[in-house]
Amino acid sequence: MLNTTNMKTRQTDLIIRWNASILKFFLLLLPILGVFGCTDFVEVDPPKNVLVSETVFDDPATVESALADLYFKMRETGMVSGNVGLTTRMAIYSDELDYYGSDPQLLEFYQNRVLPPNTELLGWWSEAYTVIYGANAILDGLEDTTFTMEEQQKFRGQALFVRAFMHSLLASVFGDVPYVTSTDYRVNNQVSRLSEDLVYENIMADLEEAIALMGDIAIANGERTFIDHYAAKALLARMYLLTEQWELAAVQASDLIAAFGLEEDLDKVFLKESGETIWQLRHGPLPGNTQEANQLIIPSVPGQTFAMTESLLSAFETGDLRRTAWVGSISDAENTVTFFYPYKYKARFNVTESLEYAIQFRLAEQYLIRAEALLALGNITGAQSDLNTVRSRAGLPNSTANTVDELFSAILAERRIELFAEQGHRWFDLKRSGRATEVLGDVKPNWEETDVLLPVPESELDTNPSLLPQNQGY
Amino acid sequence: MQPITLRMRRASLFMLLYVFLMPFCTFYLQAGTVLEPPQATVSGTVTDSTGEPLAGVNLVVESKNIGTMSDMDGSFSVNAGPSDILIFSMVGFKTLSVPIAGRDEVLVTMEEDVTELGEVVLNAGYYSVSERERTGNIATVKASVVDKQPVGNPLAAMQGQMSGVNIVQNTGVPGGGFSVEVRGQNFINGVTDPLYIVDGVPFGSQSLGSTDVSRFILGSDISPLNAINPNDIESIEVLKDADATAIYGSRGANGVVLITTKKGRAGKTRFDAHLSTTFGQVSNFVDLMNTEQYLEVRREGVINDGFEAALENPVFDSFWPDITLWDSNRYTDWQKVLIGGTAYRNSAQLSVSGGSAQTQFLVSGALLDETTVFPGDSKYNRATVHSNITHRSSNERFRLNLSTSYTHEDNLVPSIDLSSQAYILAPNAPALYYEEGNLNWENNTWNNPLASLEEKVGVKSSTVLANAMLSYELWEGLELRSSLGYTDYHLDSYRTLPSSARNPRFNFTPQNYSSLTTNQSQRTSWIVEPQLQWKQQWDVLSMDVLVGTTFQQETTEQLVLRGRGFPTNALINNMAAADEVEARGSSDSDYRYNAVFGRVNLQLLDRYILNLTGRRDGSSRFGPGRQFGNFGAVGLAWIFFKEKPFAESSVLSFGKLRGSYGTTGSDNIGDYQFLDTYTVVGEDYAGVSVLSPTGIFNPAFGWEANNKLEAGLELGFFKDRVFLNAAWYRNRSSNQLVGVPLAATTGFSELTGNFDATVENSGLELDLRSINLSKGRFKWSTTLNLTVPRSKLVRFDGLETSTFTNQYVIGEPLSIVKLYRSLGVDPETGQYEIEDFNGDGAITSNEDRQFIADLAPSFYGGLGNTLSWGNLTFDVFLQFKKQEGFNNFQNDAVPGFPRNASVELLDRWREPGDMKPVQVASSGLAFGVGNGDLQRSSDAVVSDASFIRVRNISLNYKVPMVDKRLDVQVYLQGQNLFTFTRYTGPDPEQTLNSRLPPLRQLTLGLKVGF
Predict the structure, then answer these.
(1) How far apart are CA B553 and CA A290, in angstroms?
(2) What is the ipTM of this complex?
(3) Do A238 and A170 meet the contact criterion of CB atoms below 8 Å apart?
(4) How far apart are CA A79 and CA A87, in angstroms?
(5) Cβ-defined contact of B675 to A113 (cutoff 8 Å)
(6) Do A102 and B898 touch (CB under 8 A)?
(7) How far apart are CA B410 and CA B489, in angstroms?
(8) What pLDDT, in 10s, does the model give residues B16-71?
(9) What would the DSSP string read from start to end of B94-156?
(10) Residue of A nearest to B585 (CA)
(11) Residue of B462, B558, B68 whose CA lies nearest to B265
(12) Would you give the distance in Å from CA B340 to the centre of its chain?
């Protein structure tokens, strides 16, 4: 045991000596502590669920995942999707479906009184540009990769198609829209609108490039759930028709007609194995069928949301097999009322087996595109033949239309029936043929001429004043 | 140079020795004895002025520094020489020196210290400071105040109690969160969370809830602070100004909340039991339409819309089932049915404490269970175990404080807060159940609100908090210490969505519909903070220096899974039974934080005080090259009543002027924000998993800064019986990290970056406490706090062209909303008219939303009175707030919509010439009611939401016992008892009426100690 008194003395001794140098000690201590303020300690790796952009483009597999995001977003959100997309919204905006729900946003569509703050509209606009950003980011990212030529072409082609497709839908709803090709937020945040014609030119340029890139590559699997050059041709044919480049439209449609065949059985047209499908979106996680079926099929009365309009029902010719194969009906318990609904997709969520995917392009449209193009080029027999191909599948006799005017009306009427309640075809036909006011003015009480374009979402005009002015009438 | 190096070497050697040998040293030093004069045992008792025995009085033999404490019955015994002096001290009493003068027995009566000011020691985090000498602004709530309030979350106990601290309870559902603002909103990004430190360890207060699971019930806002049992709290301090917060550097911008838990006290082992039962109910129901009124306006609306004929046509029944299909004589008060229940809370706590003069301990265990006001079997359970050990060596050099607590919470709630339904369900909506007990879907004409009771949200969380503080006094005045902390917070929550919770018309089956979503999250953090403190006293100058460094790491992990398709709903809780399991999200983040900090405190002549604090911080939340930032503050105080002119004043008993200026920062923006990233979102397309772009690269991403300036005046009158504390502050926050909204054409909704914007929060805070009467057994004291905050956006470069142009105005606070101005109802057309500010003939949101309403309180505070008469103590605490808030018109401005609304909508226009505040009825199906939406965004939806609330009443009775060692108290407490307000919505405190308002609670409790 140490002597405590002794130790105390020693401590006192130490204290005296230390007091003198204690300041120095602190001064020395500070830099020592400062060393601990080390940058290494505060640098962390990114988390496991996140990839820094550069690393995405190191591996083709991750680029495929980035592309999968585009497909996923198109299926789940925005104009392409079956639940909030063009199919239902533009059907009630035009004369295909009546709306029985009470969602004020949808009522605005149904009553042709869409206001700039409409949230459905904002969803369409922003989701479209989110997908376009994704496509542009892939196009940018691919600039400095060491992938094989084929991989690069495949990725670029799909991204270009998606960019073109989304812009085509935007232009058809909003008219003049920005054509976004950059990923720089500073540019895109102040981008201004391009005239509709120029938008279409850009779309066609992108599609032509996409076809050139993907032409020789087998991308679409057996299920046709991925975009390939055929999908690009189908959209390009649509664009040529819209811009009245008849010959080019006929060429693209002919290529597709040569490569695909119409499904003869009407009950098989919308199955996932359908031979006439050019591109379709595969279902999400359970349930394994389309949103379209779930939106459109009326499960019980009351409980209807959408039902076919009187005018659409009466537009079916007698004997049209599509009237029975593609139209369903349901009555209330007392049988006092009956509602009719589009029954192209038949598998609702309660069907657990996956039967149907959401079809975006199918061959029947291409027959009708070629018919219209040939008619414009003066080839009346060619036009009649394509039209009758579609009619005969529906069990209808050949069209009696002979003159250019008659045939044009017959083709539009055929499009109305063949393509009803699909991605707003009816609406776009009315718009591009300039007959929207003539037709809808009669059946829609609030219709005004300026309703051919929907308003640009108000919050977007607020955020980016370069988008002004607003479309007329809003 | 050599001597210095040598000494340095010696110093490092000593540091090493200190670390390794300290434990031995401690015991060794204890063993030492010193030669002393002959000893004798002196015993005695300590009582207060009324003769009650005092337990726990500190007793020191002056010559020897040997101490002990008095027992429960006030008795003590100590070894001392006949000429020694005994020093008795205890918080709240004047310190007393008693010479033994040869006696064997000493009877001591201690005198209460009227104000305790000199004694009150405040926890300032890294150091403590006496109330008298503080240079910074520190508000405190002590256990005595917390104990009076029957609350489950410590934040609830702070409401209204502190000036400058504005706390709003977000929901009345147990387990929910609070919004806390210390001196206003500093940052445009809306983050106002202060830094929480529990017993020296930072405690992550961000919720780990998942929106996939609990979005509709707790707003995903599951407060981790619920894990802290308010009964375990000794004190809560809130650090407000630069002087107090700068030592927390980058995390101090929004203030710092320090929570200190209870510790054991020396003396005989003491057992305490505490039992209580609480009844809670919704305090206010909104005055809604009854069936007759409701159907009248509904029918009127449909007719006004031009659908009168359609009313008779069954084709259109689905448009208005409430009018044509449902029983028009039926009436249900849905508020009573859905949120009108009584919530019960039972709590029990047992604790054991005690110890010797060297070592004290406390162990407490508590159980709490609480039900909700909703129908069904929702329940919140909490179990807490808290323990604390403090030890000091007999030579007082080595000290150890170890606190640990473990909390387990189990919360089962319906998946949707039924309040929102309670306010809008049609009064003639059908019965909830058929007679046989099945949910009634009334022929598919409505969504049964109780279906959501079939959906369950369960939240289980466990929290471990452990911290140790070790200190050793190297030499007199020089102390080396380190705090070590570890926290671990686990949250497991799930939500079930069985097919049985959906209308059978959809034909949902367990196979095609039922789903289970789970969220497993965890946050773990550790912290090490070695520090050196040196105190030195010269003749007129004393100095206190502290240097330290911090290493902290916090890792967060979250995994959200969703399983769909179950063979039957009975198996819905078993993820393994799901057909398809999808990972909705798997994320982790790593936050690392490193700092060097220091403090220098100089006191001259005990009246001039200078306090310098500083910190250099590094945070992983910023990109390379921008990780470090420097923060610091200067605090000054002048205790002027010691100066000549005041020294002889009989009125003024204390006077101090103080001021501080400094900079603090904020990195409260989430991890990894500077990276441009793709994120695995847990989805796939045709078998390829999806990678989504989620961030834009932004390397120029740095600290937010908050410059705080403060001046304060503290005055004590009449021996400090009246004490006034006034403070003026001005905080300017700049370099704002803002999620700047981007145009959708960029592909993103926002980008986080530093914006050249300055927000100024200034204000006056007043705290007054007084002892109005203290006469024998009767005492009456009052506390008052008042805060008058002002806030404005001082500068925002490019506001006009930025996306914030419609949200903020230079010179106005951040809490504004820009609204249309309603001109009322046109007596001719019966439609709302909205002012067209720019006169362009159209109402557009950019140009015509020019009415500015400020939703921040213009003043708030609390007034407390405590009356005690002998064993009986009565407390009343009033909380008051002057503010505007959204009223009932925010939800409905047009009568006749298919949802119930406030009776205010009945006062509507019906025919030309009517002058009414509410427009013509409409069913919402036709247009021409266009301005109804604009009205809902107009000044008409903002009105006075000021209130005076009896937040707390407490009546406590100490039952007189024959055996003085037995301490029995019974109490009755009420929380949120009455509210005086002109506000017509559910609750003026939070004016969102989709959430359950805070409940009115009444508690009966019993405390027994022996």
Answers:
(1) 47
(2) 0.84
(3) no
(4) 8
(5) no
(6) yes
(7) 14
(8) 433 333 333 333 333 333 444 566 788 888 887 767 777 778 787 877 766 777 77
(9) --EEEE-TT-SEEEEEPPBPSS-TTT-EEE-SSSEEETTT--S-EEEEEHHHHTTS--SSHHH
(10) A49
(11) B68
(12) 26
